[in-house]
Amino acid sequence: MSDITHESGVQRRDFLYVTAGALGGVGTLVACWPFIDQMNPSSVALAAGGPMAVDLASVAPGQQIIVRWRSMPIFIVHRTPAMLATLKEPQLLSMLRDPGSEENQQPAYALNWSRSLKPEYLILVGICTHLGCIPTFSPLAGSLLPSAPGGWQIGRAHV
Q1: Domains of the chain: total
Q2: Do 24 and 100 share a domain, yes or no?
Q3: What is the pTM (predicted TM-score) of this model?
């Protein structure tokens, strides 16, 4: 009988090795699954960061509203035609690193002068990047500094 098993090349011990290895691999995956699964965000985190709808019909031109998303203030400004015309001024465009929005980092809809789908609306995360404070909106020219075109103010600084 041992002659038959040696001729075929498959032994009972080989089958046991393969079976034990497969069961060990499955067991390792089952044991590791809770650690892998805990890396996914919870349902509360997914719900908090989901898209939100804001009715912009009541926002007058030149007005800013603030909504909260993921515990952060989101500034939404309905820009006036004068504000949009200011964005096209050569002196302001010269301050931009990519004034023509030509770099590959832009999504397809942002390859235009306004870098947006609807240029009349400006949407920003309203947290200062260096101190975490919330700037105040002063849309009128000269309201921050005599030569300032208007914008957001942090303390006495112009953003």
Answers
A1: 2
A2: no
A3: 0.58
Distances (CA, A) of 144 to 38, 90, 141: 48, 22, 8
Judging by beta carbons within 10 Å of its beta carbon (0-12, 13-18, 19+), is residue 91 exposed, middle or buried? exposed
**Residue 14 is inside which H or E element, if any?**
helix 12-37
pLDDT single digits (tens) 9-21: 678 888 999 999 9
Q: Are residues 93 and 140 in the same domain?
A: yes
The C-alpha atoms of residue 86 and residue 122 are separated, in whole angstroms, by 14
Nearest Cα to 121, choosing from 67, 40, 72, 158? 67
Helix %, strand %, coil % of the chain (to 5)? 35, 15, 50
Indicate whether 148 and 113 sit together in one domain.
yes
Owning domain of residue 146: 50-158
Residue 98 lies in a domain: yes
- Predicted local confidence at residue 158, as pLDDT: 42
Of the candidates 125, 34, 112, the residue with the CA atom closest to the CA atom of residue 76 = 125
